[in-house]
């Protein structure tokens, strides 16, 4: 009993010292990586001594406390990054607050028998180093913060320089909410000026126990060299396969909504369509009815290619995440309605098909039958194993495609974002760990699995 009283006193002293020494402005934002990680480590050592009920209280405070700022965050993100649509980002942020799992995701496993009982429990890593992208900065920050704090960790966010203002604001606000809910400061930290050098310093810092990387192949490769455990999201180029048995009207609607959502900057979004020739014309017609704009002039298509793909073969940042109307205007096409996505007919080796463009340009590849459709879609997906979608009423074909794709997310007869829990069952995530195999990450992925054995006891069968 005395030990518990002393422990409680120490925790209270630590909390009070944090309250008195830390200014209430720019919570969790530091000048250097060293300062930020040191503060997070101190905070986590306090946090890990708290109850699960405290963690639940923190997560609930984050869900409620961030909700009034959703619209502001969405519009500030578009303003800073120049990517996406404010109204779509609002929906993504609401999804994060509603469907990111918390402490309830940390399931205990138990085995009992003649030799006693064994428990498998999930415990914190400590301080997690998380890298976030410019495409979905606030969504990734909030989603990861909920999952990582639910698992008992602190987190250092190495944010993309292209979204540093909104990312810093979100980190500060998250920290303020956490502080007000449990009295612990700096469980979520970042630095004022993010950079490649700062990210590399974070990756090798001895007090960072786990790396969670939501970024491009380059930063993933860098993380893999750190010698630490890595949870990494990888590249994707999701095809949408449509066969002749599909409900074409629904398929067209689902594909347009998914490919155009936030101007296609989600890595899970449909990046191309592979359709059997029997239904291609009707599919395109139905897509036009859903707000797609069909470009047929080969000269205009080539102009779009030259404009949106740089000499090094990468998509031009000028057009990533931009509205379809903006892209059309740049090639001399003025449209008097809000175009959701630009569609065009293309072959399977067209650059718009083979590259992950991250903009609302959707090529449609025509094939003769399902066998060719599956082979073509697999070629386009290029064994990235990220995401694929399929529209069909043939269960056998869907089962075969699921086995062949081996993607982290495979959506059947729905929009791609159903795989993130938006209009589909299951939790949401904005870190889809394909290269390292965790799939759609949740709190349990941010916790260490530990085996606790008691011999000759608690087996009562």
CATH fold call of the largest domain: Aldehyde Dehydrogenase, Chain A, domain 1
Overall pLDDT score: 94
**Name of the CATH class of the largest domain:** Alpha Beta
Q: What is the total domain count?
A: 2
**Tell me about the biggest sheet?**
7 strands, parallel
Counting DSSP E segments of at least 2 residues, the number of strands comes to 18
Name the CATH homologous superfamily of the largest domain: Aldehyde Dehydrogenase, Chain A, domain 1
Number of helices: 16
* Spatial order of strands in the largest sheet: 11-12-13-10-9-14-15
- Judging from the principal axes of the Cα atoms, what is the shape? globular
What is the distance, rounded to the nearest whole angstrom, between the alpha carbons of the first and last residues? 33 Å
Helix content: 40-55%
Give me the CATH architecture of the largest domain, please: 3-Layer(aba) Sandwich
Radius of gyration: 24 Å
Strand percent estimate: 15-25%
């Amino acid at each position: 009993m005395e030990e518990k009283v002393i422990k409680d006193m120490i925790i209270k002293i630590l909390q009070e010292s944090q309250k008195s020494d830390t200014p209430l402005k720019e919570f969790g934002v530091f000048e250097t990586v060293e300062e930020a990680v040191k503060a997070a480590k101190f905070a986590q050592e306090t946090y890990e001594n708290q109850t699960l009920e405290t963690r639940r209280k923190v997560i609930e405070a984050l869900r409620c406390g961030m909700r009034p700022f959703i619209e502001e965050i969405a519009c500030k993100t578009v303003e800073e990054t120049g990517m996406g649509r404010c109204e779509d980002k609002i929906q993504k942020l609401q999804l994060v607050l509603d469907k990111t799992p918390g402490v309830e995701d940390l399931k205990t496993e138990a085995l009992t028998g003649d030799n006693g009982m064994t428990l498998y429990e999930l415990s914190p890593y400590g301080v997690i180093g998380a890298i976030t992208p410019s495409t979905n900065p606030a969504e990734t920050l909030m989603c990861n913060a909920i999952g990582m704090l639910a698992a008992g960790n602190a987190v250092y966010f190495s944010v993309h320089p292209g979204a540093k203002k909104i990312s810093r604001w979100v980190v500060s606000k998250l920290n303020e909410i956490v502080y007000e809910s449990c009295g612990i400061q700096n469980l979520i930290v970042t630095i004022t000026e993010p950079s490649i050098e700062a990210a590399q310093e974070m990756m090798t810092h001895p007090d960072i126990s786990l790396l969670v990387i939501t970024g491009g192949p380059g930063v993933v490769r860098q993380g893999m060299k750190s010698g630490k455990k890595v949870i990494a999201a990888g590249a994707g180029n999701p095809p949408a396969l449509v066969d002749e048995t599909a409900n074409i009207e629904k398929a067209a609607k689902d594909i347009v909504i998914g490919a155009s959502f936030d101007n296609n900057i989600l890595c899970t979004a449909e990046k191309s369509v592979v359709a059997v020739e029997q239904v291609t014309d009707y599919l395109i017609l139905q897509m036009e009815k859903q707000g797609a704009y069909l470009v047929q002039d080969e000269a205009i298509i080539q102009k779009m290619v030259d404009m949106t793909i740089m000499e090094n073969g990468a998509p031009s940042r000028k057009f990533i995440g931009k509205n379809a109307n903006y892209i059309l205007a740049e090639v001399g096409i003025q449209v008097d309605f809000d175009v959701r996505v630009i569609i065009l007919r293309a072959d399977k080796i067209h650059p718009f098909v083979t590259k992950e463009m991250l903009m609302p340009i959707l090529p449609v590849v025509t094939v003769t039958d399902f066998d060719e459709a599956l082979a073509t879609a697999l070629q386009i997906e290029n064994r990235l194993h990220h995401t694929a979608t399929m529209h069909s009423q043939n269960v056998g074909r869907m089962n075969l495609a699921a086995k062949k794709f081996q993607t982290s997310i495979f959506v059947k007869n729905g929009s791609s974002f159903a795989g993130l829990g938006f209009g589909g069952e299951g939790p949401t995530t904005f870190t889809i760990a394909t290269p390292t195999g965790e799939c759609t990450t949740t709190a349990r992925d941010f916790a260490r699995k530990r085996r606790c054995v008691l011999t000759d006891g608690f087996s009562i069968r």
